[in-house]
Each structure stands twice: as C-alpha cells, then as structure tokens.
Amino acid sequence: MIAMPLTRKQAMNTAEVLSTAVPYIQQFAGKTVVIKYGGNAMTDEKLKQSFARDIVMMKLIGLNPIVVHGGGPQIGSLLEQLNIESHFINGMRVTDSKTMDVVEMVLGGMVNKEIVGLINHNGGKAIGLTGKDGNLLRATKLKVKHKTPEMAATEIIDIGHVGEVQSVNTELLEMLCNSDYIPVIAPIGVDEKGTSYNINADLVAGTLAEVVKAEKLILLTNIAGLMDKDGEVLTGLTTQEVDRLIDDGTIHGGMLPKIGCALSAVKAGVKRVHIIDGRVEHSCLLEIFTDEGVGTLITNEESTE
What we know:
Elements: H1 8-28, E1 32-37, H2 45-60, E2 64-69, H3 72-81, E3 88-89, E4 92-93, H4 97-121, E5 126-130, E6 137-141, E7 144-146, E8 155-157, E9 163-168, H5 170-177, E10 182-186, E11 188-190, E12 196-198, H6 201-211, E13 216-221, E14 236-238, H7 239-247, H8 255-267, E15 272-277, H9 283-289, E16 295-299
Parallel strand pairs: 1-2, 1-13, 2-10, 5-10, 13-15, 14-16
Antiparallel strand pairs: 3-4, 6-9, 7-8, 11-12, 15-16
Helix pairs in contact: 2-4, 3-4, 6-8
C-alpha cells in the first residue's frame, strides 16, 4: 500500500505531534508496558489495524510491549456453532473438558495467531504464546465462593477448568522483551499435572505487569474510562480515591473485577494503570504519548504528579 503524500498543513501537524511526544519517548524508553487487548478493538477491522500499528510503534521507539488478549465472544460463537451450551456463574464461564478444548482452540489458535499476524504485517516481530509454552503461566484451579443471605455457610462451586495464576516464568518473558520480539499471550495456564485452565485475561495482564515490574498496565475497554455518578470520565485517580469510589457504589458490577486487577497491580509496584477506550483509534499511543489521553489513569498517591 502506497501512502498518499501529505499536504503542508498535514505535514506540519504530524511534525508537531511527533515533537510533543519526545519527552514521553525519553521517559519510557526501555520500560515494559503490558496491554490487555479486548472488546471492540479486537473485533472492528479498522481498530485492529490501529492497535497493531500502536504496538509496532511502541517497540520501534524503545518500549517493550507485552500483549495479553481475551476472546470471550469468539469462544461463545464457536461453542454455539458446535451446539455446546454456555453457562456462567458470577460472570465466569463454566468450563468442562469439552469447553476447554474449544477455549484452547480459539484463544491459543485463532485469536492469538490473528493478532500475531496483524502485528507482523505492520512491521513488528510478534511471537504467540499460551501460558503452557515454556510453563509461562503455572495455574491452580479457581475456587468460586457463593453465599446468599439464606445460606448458613459459604458454598464452593466447581466451574471446571477455570484457573488463577500461581506463578510466571519471568525468564522467558525477559528473554523475549530484551530481543526484537513482541510477546502475544493467550490466557491459558497449566498446573503441575499438565491440566489446562482458562484464566481471566485482565487477571493475567495484571499479574504479568506485577512480576515484570512494568512501568504501565493498559486495559482496553468498551467505555470511555471510569465514570463518576454524573457520567463524567475520571481522568486521574489515586488508589485511595478508587477505594472510596468502590465503597460509595460509584464503581460497581462488571467493572469491579477490572478495577480490582488495576488496584492490585498499582499496589504491587506498577507505576501507572490506564483504563482506556479501545473504541478510539490509536488509543494506546494517545494515552502514553499525549497529555490528554483517552481514559482513566490510576496511580499510588505518592507517585501522582
């Protein structure tokens, strides 16, 4: 594809944008950024290309991006085609052995290889992994607790091959990040017996950010960011402010697991967590390399500028 020549005004605007980004490039060169990729950014063709170019640009200017992706809608679609009914408990997919086979096929095969192909097509050197490769993600079975006011004791529900991260092979990640390669990771883990587990992608991204001491964790969403009770985007928050927003009910429902992941990462030493609008083209670059950004930034109070 041959790019059309820019007008003088367009060229001047491009030069101004690049010039504005220089301090950020200098600040983050050599630092690791973990990006959780999902939502509309994963299904809209234009946004997919935009995301791939963002990741390639990050690597070219000296950052070390690690991509963790989801794939819930794609899993659901294939299960439906195979006439396998989906069941959810507390928002988590009940995953029996047959469903786990589909999860591995979709996440480790279809989705992972598409993302790798997009990044490579745009000039990067991506390498696709599941948590099973090189024992990257050692997992344990997730125990889901359930209790209603009518119940005398908490019930433990077995939802099958759903896990949580026990440990991470950081040596493998460091080897890839210190090379020209961009890791693209499907959130599938394995236990000591070789059993596979489906793990929440936000949880995997947050855990990876913690163990590699990432400068940033970026969570792509289908909303503009965290909202206050008036529907306005909260652009900058400390962990203490987020805790208060949870306590007063401003943050609730489906956002709680994502926010829990963000809080855990920041409290474990990740300097900045960004919850950004994946429906905006080049949202990753806008959040990292501009003052305005396109979402919500969460930091520890002492690191807030």
